[in-house]
Amino acid sequence: MHAIIKLSGRQYCVSPDETIKVGKLSAEPGEDVVITDVIMIADGDNTEIGTPLVDYKVRLEVIEHGRDRKLITSRFVRRGGVRKKRGHRQHYSMVKVKSIKQGA
Length: 104
Known about the structure:
The chain has strands spanning about 1-5, 10-15, 20-25, 30-35, 40-45, 45-50, 55-65, 70-75, 80-90, 90-100. By secondary structure, it is an all-beta fold. It has one domain (about 1-100). The strands form three sheets. Strands 2-1-5-6 form a four-stranded antiparallel sheet, with no helix packed on it. It has a four-stranded antiparallel sheet with strand order 3-10-7-4, with no helix packed on it. It is elongated, with a radius of gyration of 19 Å.
């Protein structure tokens, strides 16, 4: 069984007992988060596509919070004397999909 959910402005394809990295959530590690924004469900040959959502719930467990590796961006102007270098580390949450059940 697979589900496409909307979380933090992005869409993720999830299945039970899968661990995924999502944008940082406000829940603490060990807490459960219930997502009702389920766009599509696929179970074998049966597929339900929502208009815009289907009547399912996805329960996630927050495992940990962290920060990604540093991404370096730079800007250089050839004759302008402009050189800028910046780094960014994005916050994330690791979540485990516990269940996908019908009934929102």
